[in-house]
Write a structure and sequence with these properties.
17% of the residues lie in helices and 33% in strands. By secondary structure, the protein is an alpha+beta fold. The chain folds into two domains: 29 residues; 59 residues, SH3 type barrels (Roll). The strands form two sheets. A five-stranded antiparallel sheet has the order 6-5-4-1-7, with no helix packed on it. A two-stranded antiparallel sheet has the order 2-3. The protein is elongated and about 80 Å long. The N and C termini lie far apart (65 Å). About 6% of the residues have low confidence.
Amino acid sequence: MAKVKLPAFKKSWLRGWPLVVVLAIALTVVALGYGGATDQLGSTCTVTVQAAEVTVRAAPSPSAQSVGTLTRGEEVPAETIVDTGFRKLTGGDRWVPSNSVAATAGSRC
């Protein structure tokens, strides 16, 4: 069996504090990529529909134009905004009665 000879490595500059700095930069880039440092992950709000059927409105009012419906058990992304008893859903002007939805487990609303 032939022996493979590896080249000898001389002292590397990636030791001690320079290594710590490189690792810190790499971890910061990963955190920014995942949104952890920008609070993108921490601001997610998801609600689950509790009523049999919920009318989605174009404004926070029971007389506002209907723009769709949701059924019990559906999970939808929402905002943390509640206005006159209506919770704002993400993606435009979409509002549902706040008493017809509940924050999904693990969600921050």
